[in-house]
Amino acid sequence: MKELFKNLKFVWNYTENQKGKLIILIIIGIVQIIINVIFPILSARIVVSLTTNEYFRILLIAIIILILDSVYNCLNYLVRIITIKVHRNVLFELEVNLGENILKLENESLDKNGSGVFIQRLTGDTSSISGVFNSILEILTRLITYIGILIAMFIVNKLVFLYVICSLIILYVLERVRTFKKNECDKEARKAKEKASGFIGELVRGARDIKMLNSEDDFIKELSKKIDDANYKQMKMKKVSWNYYLIIGQFDSIFSFLLIVLLIILMKDNYLIPTTALVLYNYFGRVSGLIYTVGNLLEYIKDFNLSSERIRAIIDDKEFTKEKFGNKHLTKVNGDFEFKNVSFKYDTKYVLKDLSFKVNANETVAFVGKSGAGKTTIFNLLCKMYKVNSGTITIDGVNINELDKDSIRGNITIISQNPYIFNMSIRDNLKLVKSDLTNKEMKEACKIACLEDFIKELPNGYDTIIGEGGVNLSGGQKQRLAIARALVQKTEIILFDEATSALDNQTQEKIQEAIENMKNEYTILIIAHRLSTIINADRILYLDNGKIEAEGTHKELLKNCEKYKKLYESEIINKSNKNNI
To answer: Which residue of 36, 163, 228, 495 is surrounded by the most CB atoms within 10 Å?
Structure first.
């Protein structure tokens, strides 16, 4: 019980704008309880009247029951409408807040857990707990209702049985119509939910790129739109059911009233004795619902507690650790940074050991070395995608642990070797980075990235959907789109992580030209597999086993670093062999 109240308090925090509706639901619940307590009393009065043949009094009480029944059905309809609105808004707040918290998780948490863990909690568990107050109120109301119900035996008369069958057929037809219309709406709701779920899946899978692009806010806005649309169509589907439930409920009330009229006629003509009429009139089978409702309540509480704990594990840092940033903000970043005795390890294996180097503002520096030397790790640490085990990293002389998120990722753009491209149009992919992106800025970025000619050949140009993960693009096209996306940000520090590895020689030359055009205006760091792409860098750092073995220009390293010389000569030989083929 203590756990239940703790979880109820947790969900209550998401009802800030819904408390008025919840109070209305409580008031309606109290009124419904009173009505349900009155019903058995009125039934008892009818029993007495049936035995004394007071037909006018029976009819009068039946009219009162009909009125109360109609009021009860209307209150039920109102409860369902308010319930859907509360459920929708609480679900919206929960899902968006959980999405924000997923983007705040440390990469270690994302690396160790599959995306399905977060998707399920973001979609299934939030839905399970968002309607808790409405569900518990409804269940408790039913429980109290069952307690006040008088139980009697039910004996079927043939004529009355025929009447009941006819009534059920009419109610069945109405139910069939309701089901058909609900299913039509359900198709739309499922499609909208699929789009939202797909986008949510991309949020989890592309979390690293989103954070590197510092575009969390824009991505959350897009997520909010899709979630809102899906939830609106879900509400529309349920509203169709509630509309028909109102009609069905009113028909049921009328049939109950007509049953009383029929019983009066049968008794008046001596076709039915009062005792049998009494049994036919009373509620039958309702007592079994009491056991079902209690079991349903216990099952719901169990499911609610489990779903709450799974969600709180993300939001309250119970199971997954969140990123932490400082409070210091740099309004204008010059672009110089320094690694001071930095060591870092993945699990138990050190990738960097006491690494120290400095990069000046507007300098172009390249990192080369064998695979696993720690080049990409340097980029990840500079963006604070991971925390160093020891040492310090500074931007403009300030320890990055003291800086807020915008000072770091808002001033660094990284173009990775395998960039994540979202299942959206080219235009929307670029606008995720900058929501107020103009057509001129977009075309300029794509032109520099050598992507404009390719886009012109597409059937819908910039509005072409490129598939999940950029599946409709080649490796080179994805990297060029990532370069355009990075250029849109216009940050002071630009990191190229093997960004030209999938490009052909002609396109690579154009990208090199673009990089040359950016030199002396940005701090540029390049990790290169092809050494030909970095021969014009101001400095080249050769890494091996997490340490800098040599440093200098291309010409200096050819003279002073045998390992660098071998890498360069090997590339020339491979290039020559390809040309001969």
So the answer is: 495
